[in-house]
């Protein structure tokens, strides 16, 4: 997902009850982003999913293509 202008549909940050970032993305494959801190957990369309985070800030996970949602997924990173 190296076309962030075409992949990211929505982005919302909240700080109530803990910091979170909600990202709606279109597409499937490798999602790669920078995060200065490691998320406590990540949810994909409401279910918790595994992700990788490195000390250099690389945040990575694999997104499946959801045909019934026209390829749009909702990711929530909780810090």
Describe the structure concisely.
The protein is mostly beta strands.
Written overview of the protein:
With 79 residues, the protein is mainly beta. The protein has one helix spanning 4-7, and strands at 8-14, 20-26, 29-34, 41-44, 47-49, 52-53, 58-63, 72-78. The strands form 2 sheets. Strands 1-2-8-4-5 form a 5-stranded antiparallel β-sheet. A 3-stranded antiparallel β-sheet has the order 3-7-6, with no helix packed on it. A hairpin with a 5-residue loop joins strand 1 and strand 2. It is globular and about 30 Å long. The relative contact order is 0.30. The mean pLDDT is 91.
CATH topology: Immunoglobulin-like
- pLDDT below 50 for ≥5 consecutive residues: which ranges? none
Radius of gyration, whole Å: 12 Å
Mean pLDDT, nearest integer? 91
Q: How many domains, in number, for the residues?
A: 1
Oligomer: single chain
Q: What characterizes the major β-sheet? A: 5 strands, antiparallel
Proportion of residues in extended strands? over 45%
Q: Given the C-alpha coordinates, what overall shape results? A: globular
- At the first level of CATH, what is the class? Mainly Beta
Helix count, per DSSP? 1
State the separation between the terminal residues, measured CA to CA.
23 Å
Write the element-wise H/E pattern from the N-terminal end onward. HEEEEEEEE
The CATH architecture: Sandwich
Number of strands: 8
Structural class: mainly beta
Q: Widest sheet: strand order? A: 1-2-8-4-5
Helix content: under 10%
């Amino acid at each position: 997902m190296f076309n962030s202008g075409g992949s990211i549909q929505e982005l919302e940050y909240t700080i109530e009850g803990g910091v979170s970032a909600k990202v709606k993305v279109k597409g499937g494959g490798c999602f790669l982003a920078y995060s200065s801190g490691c998320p406590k957990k990540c949810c994909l369309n409401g279910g918790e999913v595994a992700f990788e985070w490195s000390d250099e800030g690389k945040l990575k996970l694999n997104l499946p293509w959801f045909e019934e949602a026209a390829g749009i997924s909702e990711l929530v990173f909780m810090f």
